[in-house]
Amino acid sequence: MNLAWRNLSHDRLRFFVTISGIAFAVFLMIFQGSLLTGFIRTSSIVIDATEADIWITARGVPSFDYGTALPRRFREMAYGVPGVVSVERVVSGYAVWQKPSGKRQVILLVGAEPRVGKRFPLPRLGDRAEVTQPECVVIDRSVAALFEVAAVPLEIEISQRHARVSELVDGFGTFLGNPYVFTNYDDAVRYLGLGLEETRFLLVRVAPNENVLAVQRSLGERLPEADVWTREEFARRSQLFWVIQTGAGGAILVAGILGFIVGLVVVSQNIYATTMEHIEEFATLKALGASRGYIQRIVLLQALVSGVIGSLIGMLAAYPAVEAIRGYISWIHTPWWLPAGMIATGLLMCGLASMVSIRKAVAVEPARVFRA
Hints:
This protein is an alpha+beta fold. Helices cover 50% and strands 19% of the residues. The protein has 11 helices and 11 strands. A hairpin with a 5-residue loop joins strand 2 (84-98) and strand 3 (104-112). The protein is elongated, with a radius of gyration of 29 Å. The mean pLDDT is 85.
């Protein structure tokens, strides 16, 4: 360990370049990983906020953002399945938000009945979770400036009908160009100009002592014209749709993969350059009788020390960068396991990169040190 550290600190400029390269690689991987993780999380944020066990959608609906109408009779038919406790309605559609300045913004209006879940952002009446305020809407704090909402409550118009912004929430931003606006089910139907019984999604709660998968199968048999998903299945379907089947998700996924590859190349080049810088020292060690294992350990330790220092710097730089960009990309998300995983990945890259360097170090001829 002492010799490995001396090799690294002997040429401080080279050591600085090495850890800077590793720090950049780890920073890039954490930043790209935060974009990808946030994108995946946001693609199912509305689904995850509900407490329903089962979602019923029209056949072929790929995600929550592309719901289509369900026949009125489906709700009554779902109630007829044993084990079903409640069937709540959720509707979504595009509407026009008129700002105080008179400018207009297309929105994705989401309306739900109050019992869909306590975490679902609805204009609830105080602590009464099952009562909503009429003609009120809830928006994410990240779009308040876009909607010209300086303070709440604020009177506005949606589809030329009166509405009031009653609350700002966090965590429901979207990568779509049309921000989410949440309201109660009846007002959403009115703003969207739908029939009173028209809906997009049915959310089913199953009795505590019933098997969810068994109820799901029964609903599928009762409603062959619809798709019946567990909440987890529909969330995963939405995530896969946005990440794999759309250009936006594909671009972020490819950028994340490229970030890893660039990081691996940067780390490999720096570790290799550090080893070659001290190739004469390794020749001297072999001339003095050092074993192959001893030289291998020195090279590996050099790589891991550089990796630890560079990874920590990269992680510390990533957090303020993510927070700075959050004002422009509100859905970016850095879970606790991502930096830890990227540090582990950075050390793994250093270990892999040292393999080529180790081969060079152990293959050097001891007689090289005596050459003029």
